Amino acid sequence: MRHFEKKIIHSWQRLKLIIDKYKEVGKIIGFTNGCFDIIHKGHVTYLFQSKEYCDILVVAINTDESIKRIKGPKKPINTLEDRMIVIASIEAVDFVIPFEEDTPISLIEYLKPDVYFKGGDYDNKTIPELKIIEKYKIIYRVLSFVPDSSTTKIIRKIIEKGGI
Length: 164
Hints:
Blueprint: H1 3-7, H2 12-24, E1 29-34, H3 41-51, E2 56-62, H4 64-71, H5 80-88, E3 95-99, H6 105-111, E4 115-118, H7 130-135, E5 139-142, H8 151-160
Parallel strand pairs: 1-2, 1-4, 2-3, 4-5
């Protein structure tokens, strides 16, 4: 098994057991989520910034079906398995887990991380997870926004340049 494959956890129960063991020894658990469809410098910057505030970083990734509900039938570009492998390959990430819902509220409530991260593009928006992170007194951090870095912009640029 390759190192990145060990980071991919499909069972919420298994991940909870692992996370609880880290908490028992005083480790700070960070949590973030997203589609992570076409990885760009904004994603990587954001994940490394997140890791600066925690010992263990968990990244929850929307399933393909969840993304279709949120972003429309033409997305995602990459499959869930491909997206999990790419994210798990990033050094700053400790664990990757998929979630079926449109938001990770249930998973956050189940894992109860110490810190919840959102990208700078959420700075002035109300996030759906806000009530649950306040309920459990989870620290909330909005990280730096990396301008001109988005999956949508990458797709538009490919189309504008005439595809391949």
